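Prompt: May I have another protein with tokenized structure?
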Amino acid sequence: MKIQRIRAIARKEFLHVFRDWRSLAMGIAIPMIMLFLFGYALTLDVDRVPLIVWDQSASPASREFVSGFTGSRFFALQGRATGYAQIEQAIDDRTALIALVIPRNFARSLEKGEAAAVQAILDGSDPNTATFALGYAEAVTGSYSRKVVLEQLARMGTPSSRAGIDLRPRVWFNSDMVSKNYIFPGLIAIVMMVIASLLTSLTIAREWENGTMEQLLATQVTGPELILGKLLPYFAIGLLDLILCVIVGEFFFAIPLRGSLVLLFALSLLFLLGALGLGMLISIVTKSQLVASQLALVATMLPAFLLSGFIFPIENMPIPIQLVTRLVSARYFVVLIRGIYLKDVGLDILAVETTFLSVFCVAVMALSVARLKKKIE
């Protein structure tokens, strides 16, 4: 393997990238668009849930109960209803996701020391949001119920008991429970995986389609030299994308980077090499740019989004699917980058994930060299 031949192949590929503005835009502009689009649009936070209230009691007690909802950041009062028909209409047209129905005897039941039933009607077409909304409603109701019990005990002259469980939660690593701090590091993994594989999936296939592969084979360049020379320009683009991602996370989204920046870049470049190698393998196998680009999207985007734990917890997936996720390199890098960003963990904790990425990188590179050698022969 000679440096001169690798440099010549890399220079040729650099010239092609800079002359083809579409490839350059795909390598730099698209990752930034994805980063801003998903960074701002994709969120797991459920707040400002639209609420509608049918208060049949119209008493100070019912108004105080409703104020517990309207005073919370988790609910946004959209209006008042005077019957079930209005509630049904509001839920049908998505004006409200939850409705509270307070009965006429609400205040009277509380004054008698009896349980007052309040109906909560939720839109179950979005079960995830409905589950969060129901949890918020139960928390507000529980808080109001405890307040009523204490007031009744005070009126009866009975001292309130301090016995019981006093839960004092303390959240580590993401104390504000902001979903973007969890999503953004994983988004970097998705962007790098998809863009790197998509770019390199066109390299060898383009040479076959343009008829220039025969000219390369007529030279003294070897398979490993050709692959390495082809990868260098896209490795540089991937490194630039990584730098831009870190800058965007720091200055636009204020994502806390608690771990080592050196470790982050070292493991990210290892993952990048594996993604580039996968794209190169696809390019060698297909010989067609159209087929290569489609196969790269299917082999990288779908597994990276669905099977990496980026959004959907792997623990909740069926056992056979969990076994399949063990073959997805993005799964391990998502764990790595979130651990570095949010928890400041090192290689002692991330040894398994680092080992898999190393093995994956070596495996796809070896397969690419073997497949190219077979194609040439």
